[in-house]
Design goal:
This protein has a domain of 201 residues. The protein is 75% helix and 0% strand. It is built from twelve helices and no strands.
Length: 330
């Protein structure tokens, strides 16, 4: 398979190195995919800023603040716009995650990949992808509440026994609940690649992800942690100077153009850093399949194709027919 990346079990360092190498070698492909959701969020943020500017531009020393009815109208419009914008961004961002997954798969297995083909591949799995991400967020939300609440209850019971160290017991219970919730989240780490690349149902993808990530939760957690740090660091570099200028503005007045530049620079940072996590998770998915299912051998055998029959050999009879009858033999 020309151009395919070598498939073999990878250490965490090798996996991260391949993530950055893949991103660097196909920079415009992944940036092009992630540009769509960031463009959407930048446009929505600028529109909301424009809508709120009359309220934010009232000077503290001159003029009167808006009437309560006007303020309620402005705030109501803001929250409604934020809700609609959040839904739109969720849909577009989910599509970008799916497109990134397909792009990684194509590049990793030596197939041609473009921004258009990556998004085109998502279309047939669009609703399943939205449902999967929504279900994961819902499960993690309730799991967080259950685990943390359960951990704190256990901590309180321990605190009753420990007496003066009750606070320590509550804190340990809270910490244990957080760890359980995080581990559950990590077990869903490769659900999106499983859903899209194996064409599974939502619940099959969740089960598949838990099977593939078993024994690999530490690697997935470190991948999430590292990519999260890199993402926030890149956004901070792009957006930090404008945020600092906004905090240093005298008189409490922040100009609209400064806010706009802050939003645009944050979007640029998101475009550059956004693909990294999904690239890493897609590679983790393939690495887990190589380790658990010898996926590298499957790909190699598929590339070789069916073996050709020896020269002069009689081809096998077609289905539903018998071999040559004895009367036809010489």
């Amino acid at each position: 398979m020309p151009g395919a990346t070598e498939l073999r079990p990878l250490s965490l360092g090798e996996l991260l190195d391949r993530t950055f190498t893949l991103y660097r070698n196909h920079f415009w492909l992944f940036v092009g995919i992630m540009a769509l959701p960031q463009l959407v969020i930048v446009i929505l943020s600028l529109l909301l800023q424009r809508f709120m500017s009359p309220f934010l531009a009232v000077p503290a020393s001159s003029g009167s603040p808006p009437a309560p009815a006007e303020m309620a109208r402005i705030l109501g419009g803001f929250f409604f716009g934020a809700l609609v914008g959040g839904v739109v961004y969720y849909i577009v961002y989910a599509m970008a995650l799916g497109a990134t997954t397909f792009a990684v798969s194509d590049v990793y297995l030596g197939r041609p990949a473009t921004v258009q083909s990556a998004y085109r591949n998502v279309r047939g799995r669009f609703w399943s992808l939205l449902g999967l991400i929504f279900l994961i967020l819902l499960v993690l939300f309730f799991a967080y509440l259950v685990f943390v609440a359960g951990g704190m209850i256990v901590g309180i019971l321990l605190g009753i026994v420990l007496g003066p160290l009750a606070v320590v017991g509550v804190f340990l219970g809270f910490l244990a609940g957080m760890v359980c919730a995080v581990m559950l989240g990590m077990s869903f780490g490769v659900a999106i690649p499983a859903l899209l690349l194996e064409k599974l149902t939502i619940f099959q993808a969740l089960t598949r992800s838990m099977k593939l990530t078993k024994g690999n939760l530490g690697r997935i957690f470190l991948t999430f942690l590292l990519m999260g740090v890199i993402t926030y660091a890149i956004i901070a570099v792009f957006q930090g100077p404008f945020l600092a200028a906004m905090f240093m503005t005298k008189g409490g007045q922040i100009s609209l153009w400064l806010q706009s530049l802050s939003v645009i620079s944050g979007g640029a940072g998101g475009v550059l850093s956004g693909p990294l996590l999904m690239i890493g998770l897609s590679l983790l998915y393939y690495d887990a399949r190589v380790r658990k299912e010898a996926f590298d051998l499957q790909v190699m055998m598929a590339a070789l194709g069916p073996a050709a029959p020896p020269a002069g050999a009689t081809p096998p009879p077609e289905a539903g027919t018998s071999g040559p009858s004895p009367s036809t033999k010489a």
